[in-house]
Design the sequence.
């Protein structure tokens, strides 16, 4: 090995050449380490070289002899460098190893958590399914036993001397009579159809691969909501078949009962259930767990697994609130149970509220104007599902005495002051009207029973002379401010804070001010009426020429209707 | 006579300590001193002396300082107190060892 790099006079080797095999400096390497090593080795080589030159004048020979005795300087330098920094190098390697282990450990932990979560979810679904199946079989067995006992009681008892085996004979007779007495169109109703068609309810449940709907209460630890009206309808309008038997007030199972008990007398509660069940797809959740399970029931075919597709779940809570949810069962979900969890609103507490409006100015009273209002409960969104209201006092239409501001309505036929509410049950023709008669009650007693919650109150003017609503033409500012509400199908004035009236269980009296612009509209009517006298039949700003339907023909309390 | 390296590496630390014990010295001088005193018996690579010196410095047997000679930096080594103690222990052990070995070999040769 011959070093040709430049060197100081008398030096054998430049110190920098000794360090050529060293790796890149470490981050925390002391700056003097390399130079110290190079200087120490270079001093040794230079001393040896000069001494060797005394023996031979030939420099390459002297240099070679020095290197032969010393060994490879670069390798020695690397050995010394590693020896000096061994602690730091090992620490760096250990730190990197620990960091790598942390990353790997984190990934492994994340993987395990994901796996455990998946397994836990799967296990929970299995537990829910197995529990509901067990309870279904249990309640069905109880219902079947009660049914047999009732049928046996109604059958004439065979004479003992006839020698028939009592129990078996009675059971056989019941089955035969039940089959014969069953009308063909009732074969498919409820669980009876499945039973008589050869597949027992238990068999259907054992091969259940359908849709399970679980209803729980908002704000609780998944407390179940029992006895909701629930229906599941495909996008083609075909309802799914509820497969869970429903114990009625008598402890009987609804499954199989319509056919079996045709012609006999039912308990009233049970008849009510049958009537509800006759509405396609509309059934009650079955038990205290708030679980309803459905299978496909094509017309004229036995029940089977729910086909992939889009379905709508309709739920009506016991206080009248309704919700619907669109679900999709993908093709990959066939032959496995699909579970939907719906969170229902907590029960509302009733408030007894008297709603007052301001006293109407006398000139407007003289012009035949009074205040009317609609009071609608606003929908709420719970866990992504919108709950709307549809019954009881949720949709109110009120008249107010213009002189007192008290709720009232004059009924020409009965002579009473009243207001009324209406509700429609979804998907059926069971729309009902309910009236709240105030009679001659004191103002404080003209309260309304309202479930606590948020309401939308829309005020408007009723023109008693024209017998129609005076609606306003909304301005751009009205729309931007959200002041427009709908009253009898026309634009009205929203009242309350930002159009929301909050009713709590403690609310007693609600005092409504005239919303912005409401008096101006009435004054316009007055001005128009004064200027046009009797020549103009209708104000184009007031109506569209077709008066909206009035809840009743009204005249305020202070101004009875003229004959 | 050829040197048995196994015998050398068992005693090289003691030889270095002994040379340094004479006064501050540097690597090339240590190698020359060892070679001269052993009459050329310890024929080891001079470069291999430095890892031993650095190790003994890390073990606090030696201390070091730098000086400048002929425009070059030179590293000098001194014996520490701990190094002196270690040297005394090693010399005593070697003396006992060599006496034992010589006793055996002497008896054999005498026989």
Sequence:
């Amino acid at each position: 090995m011959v070093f040709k790099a430049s060197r100081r006079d008398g030096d054998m080797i430049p110190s920098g050449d000794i360090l050529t095999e060293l790796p890149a400096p470490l981050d925390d390497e002391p700056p003097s380490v390399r130079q110290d090593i190079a200087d120490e080795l270079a001093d040794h080589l230079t001393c040896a070289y000069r001494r060797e030159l005394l023996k031979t004048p030939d420099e390459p020979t002297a240099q070679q002899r020095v290197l032969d005795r010393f060994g490879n300087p670069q390798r020695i330098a690397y050995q010394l460098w590693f020896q000096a920094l061994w602690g730091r190098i090992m620490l760096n390697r250990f730190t990197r190893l620990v960091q790598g282990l942390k990353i790997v450990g984190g990934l492994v932990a994340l993987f395990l958590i994901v796996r455990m979560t998946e397994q836990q979810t799967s296990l929970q679904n299995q537990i829910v399914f197995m529990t509901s199946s067990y309870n279904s079989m249990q309640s069905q067995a109880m219902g079947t036993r009660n049914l047999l006992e009732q049928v046996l009681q109604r059958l004439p008892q065979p004479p003992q001397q006839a020698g028939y085996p009592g129990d078996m004979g009675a059971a056989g007779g019941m089955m035969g009579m039940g089959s014969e007495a069953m009308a063909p169109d009732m074969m498919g109703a409820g669980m009876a159809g499945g039973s008589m068609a050869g597949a027992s309810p238990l068999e259907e449940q054992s091969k259940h691969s359908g849709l399970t709907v679980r209803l729980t209460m908002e704000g609780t630890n998944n407390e179940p909501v029992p006895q909701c009206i629930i229906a599941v309808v495909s996008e083609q309008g075909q309802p799914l078949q509820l497969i869970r038997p429903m114990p009625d007030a008598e402890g009987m199972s609804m499954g199989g009962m319509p056919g079996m008990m045709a012609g006999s007398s039912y308990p009233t509660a049970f008849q009510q259930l049958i009537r509800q069940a006759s509405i396609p797809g509309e059934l009650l959740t079955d038990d205290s767990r708030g679980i309803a399970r459905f299978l496909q029931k094509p017309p004229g075919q036995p029940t089977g697994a729910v086909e992939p597709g889009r379905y709508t779940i309709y739920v009506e809570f016991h206080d009248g609130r309704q919700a619907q949810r669109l679900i999709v069962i993908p093709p990959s979900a066939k032959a496995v149970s699909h579970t939907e969890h719906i969170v229902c609103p907590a029960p509302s507490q009733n408030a007894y509220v008297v709603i007052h409006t301001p006293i109407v100015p006398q000139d407007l009273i003289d012009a035949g104007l009074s205040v009317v209002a609609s009071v609608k409960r606003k929908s709420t969104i719970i866990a992504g599902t919108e709950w709307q209201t549809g019954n009881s006092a949720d949709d109110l239409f009120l008249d107010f005495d213009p002189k007192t501001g008290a709720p009232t309505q004059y009924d020409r036929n009965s002579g009473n002051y009243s207001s009324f509410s209406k509700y429609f049950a979804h998907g059926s023709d069971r729309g009902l009207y309910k009236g709240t008669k105030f009679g001659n009650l004191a103002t404080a007693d003209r309260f309304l029973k309202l479930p606590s919650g948020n309401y939308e109150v829309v005020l408007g003017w009723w023109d008693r002379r024209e017998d129609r609503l005076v609606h306003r033409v909304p301005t751009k500012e009205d729309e931007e401010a959200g002041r427009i509400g709908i009253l009898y199908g026309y634009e009205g004035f929203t009242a309350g804070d930002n159009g929301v009236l909050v009713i709590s269980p403690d609310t007693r009296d609600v005092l409504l001010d005239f919303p912005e612009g409401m008096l101006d509209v009435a004054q316009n009517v007055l001005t128009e009426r004064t200027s046009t006298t009797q020549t103009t039949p209708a104000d184009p700003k007031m109506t569209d020429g077709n008066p909206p339907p009035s809840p009743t023909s009204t005249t305020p309390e202070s101004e009875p209707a003229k004959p | 006579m050829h040197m048995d390296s196994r015998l050398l590496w068992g005693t090289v630390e003691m030889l270095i300590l002994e040379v340094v014990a004479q006064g501050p010295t540097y690597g090339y001088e240590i190698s020359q001193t060892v070679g001269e005193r052993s009459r050329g018996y310890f024929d080891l690579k001079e470069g291999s002396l430095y890892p031993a010196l650095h190790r003994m410095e890390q073990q606090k047997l030696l201390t070091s300082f730098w000086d400048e000679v002929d425009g070059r930096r030179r590293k000098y080594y001194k014996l520490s107190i701990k190094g002196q103690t270690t040297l005394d222990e090693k010399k005593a052990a070697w003396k006992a060892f060599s006496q034992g070995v010589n006793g055996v070999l002497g008896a054999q040769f005498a026989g």
Chain B touches chain A at residues 26-28, 31, 45-48, 50-51, 54-55, 58, 66, 69-75 (CB under 8 Å). The domain at 5-110 of chain B is CATH 1.10.10.10 (Arc Repressor Mutant, subunit A). The first strand of chain B starts at residue 62 and ends at 69. Chain B has a mean pLDDT of 86.
